[in-house]
C-alpha cells in the first residue's frame, strides 16, 4: 500500500491481527496507535498521560510483534503529544526492556520524537540507561527523524511525512471526539463514587449502556477502567490533602468496605493507601 493511498486501514485492538498485515490495519490501544504505510517503517504514536495499564498494553503489543511482526524494522516513536508518564508505567517498560526481549532483535533503527519537560528527559534518559542492540536516537523534528531513519531517497521521507500528518490529524480528531464522554463520566464518578453503575451513568448522560460502552471503546477504554481510574484519583487527593482515616475515605468514595478501597488502590498504584500517603509526605 502506498503512503498516498486513500484506502482507510481497518481499525483493530488485536495486535496479532495488526502485525499480520500492518499496511491494511491500524492498531488502536487506549493511549497509543500503531500504524505502517506498508513497508518496513512502523510508527507508534502515544498521547495523554500514560499509566501502568497503558504500559501493560504496550508490552503485550511488543510481544505480539516479536511473535508475528516483520523483522528488520525501522521504528518511529512519536511522544510529542504525551503529557506525562506514571512511575509505574515507566518501571514496567524499563523492566521489560531489561529482560532483553526478542522484540528488540527485529529493530534496525529507532527514532523517538520527544515532547517537552519531564517526558523529554524520560525519552533522552531511556536511550542512555537501557542498553539497546540497535541504533536509536531522540529528535524533536519528524522530518529530521525520518531522514535519519532512511537518509535516501528524499522522496521516501516526504511521502511518509504526508502519511504521518494524516494519521496524526485522525488521532487528534479521535481524542477530541472522545473527550466529552470521558469528561462527563469522570464528573459523574467523582460525584457518585464506587456506587455508580454503567446503567446509571448511561441514563445520566442520556444514552443507552451499549452506546456508552461503544463510545468508550472508540476512545480506547471502558467503563470499569474509567471507574477504577476516577476512584484512585479521588483517593489520592483525599490521602494527600488530609489526615483522614482510610475507613472514612473509603466510605466517602462509596465503597461498601474499606478493604475494597485498599485492594483497588494497591492493585492500581503498587502501594496500600497508608503507605502511598507516607511516601508522598516523605
Architecture overview:
The model has no long low-confidence stretch (mean pLDDT 86). The chain is globular and about 65 Å long. Helix 5 (142-149) packs across helix 6 (154-192), helix 6 (154-192) packs antiparallel against helix 8 and helix 9 (223-241) packs across helix 12 (273-281). Helix 4 (117-129) links the parallel strand 6 and strand 7. It contains twelve helices and seven strands. It has helices spanning 15-20, 52-68, 87-98, 117-129, 142-149, 154-192, 198-204, 209-218, 223-241, 246-252, 258-269, 273-281, and strands spanning 10-12, 25-28, 32-35, 41-50, 73-85, 107-113, 135-139. The chain is α/β, with parallel strands linked by helices and 282 residues long.
Which features would summarize this protein structure in a list?
282 residues, alpha/beta, 12 helices
Q: Quick one: how many beta strands?
A: 7
Computed CA radius of gyration, to the nearest angstrom: 21 Å
Q: Report mean pLDDT, rounded to a whole number.
A: 86
Residue runs with pLDDT of under 50 for 5 or more positions: none
Proportion of residues in extended strands: 15-25%
- The number of helices is 12
Question: Can you write the helix and strand succession as a string?
Answer: EHEEEHEHEHEHHHHHHHH
Largest sheet: 7 strands, mixed
Question: Can you tell me the overall shape?
Answer: globular
Distance between the termini: 55 Å
Structural class: alpha/beta
Q: How would you write the strand order of the largest sheet?
A: 1-2-3-4-5-6-7
Helix content: 55-70%
